[in-house]
User: What shape does this take?
Amino acid sequence: MITGIPQSGGFRWTYRAYVTLFFIYLALPLVTVCVFAFNDSVFPSLPWEGFTWAWFFGTDAPYIGVFHERGILRSVVTSGIVAFWVALLSVFVGTCNAFLFVRHDFRGKGFLYILMLLPLIIPGIILGISILVFSSSVANYLEDATGLWFDGLRPGLILVVLGQFSFITTFATLVISARLQKIDPSLEEAALNLGATRWGAVRAVTLPFLYPAMAAAGVVAVLMSFENFNTTLMLVGSDAPLTITMFDRLKLGSTPVLNAVSLLLIVASAILGLASLLLQKRTE
Amino acid sequence: MFETPDLECRDISKSFDDFKAVKDVSFAVPPGTFFSILGPSGCGKTTLLRMIAGFQKPSSGDLLIKGRSVLDVPPNKRQVSMVFQHLALFPMMNIGANVGFGLRQRGVNRADIKRQVERVLDRVGLTGVADRPVDSLSGGQKQRVAIARCMVLEPDVLLLDEPLGALDLKLREHMKIELKQLQAEFNTTFVYITHDQSEALVMSDQIAVMNRGVFEQVGTAKELYYEPSTAFVAGFVGEANKFRARVQSLDAGVQMVTDQGQVLHGTAAGKALAKGDAVDVFVRPEAVRLSRDTALNGNAGQGRVENILFNGANSQLILRDQTTGAQMNVALPQTGEFRDLSVGDTVHFGWEPAQTRVYAGD
Amino acid sequence: MPVTDRSRLTFYLLLAPLLLWLVTLIILPHVGMFLVSLREKVGVREYETGFANYAVFFNEPLYWNTFARTAYMSIAATVLTLLIGFPIAYYIAKLTRGRTKTTLFLMCLIPFWVSELVRTFGWMILLRETGVFSNVLQWAGLADAPVEMLYNDAAIMVGLVYTSMLFMVVPLVTTLDSLDDSLIEAGYDLGASGFAILREIVIPHAMPGIVSGCIVVFMLSLGNYLTPILLGGKDSLWFTGLIYSQFITRFNWELGSAFGFLLLGLSSTIVFIGLKLSRQSLGRTMAQ
Assistant: This one.
């Protein structure tokens, strides 16, 4: 922090006002969404008709709360299943990648590393359509060749999981590699020196050291999976995850039940986000 | 003739919350002086320097440069330049752009900047490096660039914030001499802060010893070394054997008895003493004489050699007084006479009461 | 490390998931998409290879106008995000410390953990005809009738800037944090004004952060679908919207693939130019 630079009072005041305005700008849409979750009206807009919990717990139309909305509940479950598989796969592959890039030297490593980073700069919607096009061609080919059906390669949850996995793995790899780079190699050597096998040393020393980073990567994966829209949109079949369901509702005209879902999402993502930060902090 | 000092501080103080970092410090630096502020870390010297540079505003007191108060002058308008602890050379610019930075800010035209930059680089012995990146220089060369960057602006006062701290020992020794030469060459007032006494002693015309926010003593290197006016200065500048004692009589010099029971004679320094006062007694290792077999005059004793710390010209003996058990550090004379001295030998030692400085204790 | 059979085995076991992932989900799909984009439909299940789909793009003004519009709107969003975010990042990195700094930084992060859909929904509630702003304006007497602020380019811009802000602020805070304060003080000490310091010291130092922030924000804006559709309305003319409609509503995958490839080309070109201009490497930029 710089203390030595004198600034005029007016400048300092303006600067502070600007920063305050900025944070209001950041908070405004989220606060608005949350506030209107409690409006006793069928539209999420002014005028304010009074406070209600109906958009959470209501059972009578049109006031059907989140917890009684079949469609939304089903899509939350779908999102959860997708997020689970994405997190599991991406943490597994991310851990393997981390060991590969940190512990091994081989020809083409630099090239593979760049390739590994590519999903970050490919727009999500293009990841989605490329996987859609490719899996459909494969499905067409296989169906022509065998006469069997390959529904797993048609738009649906499997493709959604693969699509999200395809770029979330890069994040998982980066988070876990950062941690693996910090481990003191002499710890593992000490374990070997004390008679452990190579795999035994990794399991006893290195993996426990990596767990916080793997957990953080898992949390990040769940967060990204839950809120992903672009890739999912191109790959979704009949079972829609939460963001897609909300998008469809939004196009039709929204009711405050969407605000209620959003409020719950905001709270959940803030908790998950903080958890991932804490986990990463513990790894420092 | 009385010259207007280049820099003058009058009762300057700085408080942070309830902590007083600098307390009513007053001093004046005549033109062309190499003035050092020497003190342990946390003594307030950095705060004082930053106030002079303008990065901090004094809580009270006045600050004059060339006789004019600069309290209301922001750092970018003060005729004071600063060499930062880690030099703060701009890595995004080449050497020439670094040195010319201040001139550019003044709106000097390009051709003049180029000429002046080349001239000042010449003067610090770095001809023809203007187009090179900062990182191509060695530590000592960077130092010179940092000074050139300030000197090209012809400041009234150049402030230096422990710029030698980051260098290795050998280079540091070399740069001490070089800095002193540069100061003489530019004939500009330097205010140099450091915690390293040898830097201050070697380079300075005047040294202020600072402790806990106040100046303990201001004087030449010799004055500080031979006539420290406080116990802190006696302990901080140079090395010293220190005893705690109590005054017995003040008839001829100070007669006192140490905590270990030895009677010593000494010279009062600093504040006046009274009979029965607790005092701190300082004796320099090089003031102590040694003898193999004859007892010595003055404050004397006999001791066993506990350790010999051989370090060439700076070798020392650690003696244990046989009667009191007190420990004594003695500079080992390099005349060859004591070359075969070894651990376990017994020697006589003694020193003059005039070299025994007595300060009122806490 | 001695190359033993076992460590070779470990190496291949670790390499396998990486290759499986990259080949089947990244490389082959993109190759496949490219091949599809070269396919011309001449009859039912009859195709020829050629650049006809790309020709369609260049011959239809709507398509390339949308393409260009998407590009320059994204550039505008990037510049705006930079201009708005830079003072904030500077404030967080250089003018606060300790707890305040952490809090402000977290306050920047939290909105971006929330789904983009929720954020966009928030702006819809604020901006639409029956929305909060419109009501406030009427209440304050500044408008007589409801004001529609949704479904125009300004609304898209507000949404894009909002959505991208984090990806600008985080790398900027990181690079500005690493700027040694004494460089700024040295600048002042040598007589520079605040503006000169910003131009000659702060911005050159922050350049890597500025570049990586701009690249990411540009890519995100270019590839955005939700914000233009929801805030810009049906006629928002965003290139991703064209891709979506070719794929999902018109079922013309050949043309859609060609569009996809063009978008990918544009985004890669810009990233490449950005990296070249700033002499950054992809690895270092993305790690920020």
Remarks:
- The interface with chain C takes residues 53-55, 74-78, 80-82, 84-86, 88, 90-93, 101-102, 104-106, 149-150, 153 of chain B (CB under 8 Å).
